[in-house]
Amino acid sequence: MTAKKFFAELIGTFALVFFGCGVAIATGCSNMGDSAYAMTALAFGLVIVGMAYSIGRVSGCHVNPAVSLGVFCAGRMSFSEFIGYICAQVVGAILGAFVLFAIAGVGGTNAPADGVSVVSALALECILTFFFVLVILFVTADDKFERIAGVVIGLTLTLVHLVGIHFTGTSVNPARSFGPALVAALQGQGAALGVVWIFIVAPLVGGALAAVVYKALASK
């Protein structure tokens, strides 16, 4: 069963990168506000909805190391399972970015927009991830929300992207950023790899903080 969970996470993260970043590339989403922002945000949200109601039955559909860290810190999964999830998510993201790069010539990398400092990017990604993971922890804590959990989580990710795309391209997911950055670097486009640490550190901090707040608020 554990192997199935890891494979499900690989598939889910592949889908997230391929479809989410694919829509961003197809619509020309950039740092200029237009309808491409909304379409890209909706694409990431819809992928999560679709995966939540499919692989969610197998692995819980984390497809994000920050989410897995939050779940682990909340005491809902073992350390060995946590490590397995992260490995599967990273592999899935790399494969998704590789296929996307083969088709489109770009892989959907993240970088702070012009005028956005490293500190601002770190703070924004941390805050966005905090609220995203906090929603996930609460909505998946009670079986009575099972039928709507996927929709709630997908819409929250859409909202997160609507806020963050202009400033950082929105990551809130270390695997989603690392995969495209690595593939781009292997293709001689290594600029994104130099800033990818922002999109690894900030989401992980945000996910851990969400678990702390969740445990404080949910405790009896």
Which short descriptors sum up this protein?
single chain, 220 residues, mainly alpha, 10 helices, globular
Query: How many H/I helical runs?
Result: 10
Percent in helix: over 70%
Tell me the major beta sheet: none
The end-to-end distance, rounded to whole angstroms, is 32 Å
Tally of DSSP β-strands: 0
Sheet-strand content, in percent, reads under 5%
Question: What is the structural class?
Answer: mainly alpha
Order of helices and strands: HHHHHHHHHH
- What integer is the average pLDDT? 93
Q: In terms of per-residue confidence, which ranges show pLDDT below 50 for 5 or more consecutive residues?
A: none
Query: Could you say which overall geometry the principal axes of the C-alpha atoms support?
Result: globular
Backbone CA Rg:
16 Å
What does this structure look like?
With 220 residues, this protein is mostly helical. 76% of the residues lie in helices and 0% in strands. It is globular.
Could you write a compact summary of the structure shown?
This protein is an all-alpha fold and 220 residues long. 76% of the residues lie in helices and 0% in strands. The N and C termini lie far apart (32 Å).
Question: Mind sketching the topology for me?
Answer:
Blueprint: H1 2-27, H2 35-52, H3 56-59, H4 65-73, H5 79-104, H6 118-139, H7 146-168, H8 174-186, H9 191-195, H10 198-218
Helix pairs in contact: 1-2, 1-5, 2-7, 4-5, 4-6, 4-10, 5-8, 6-7, 6-10, 8-10
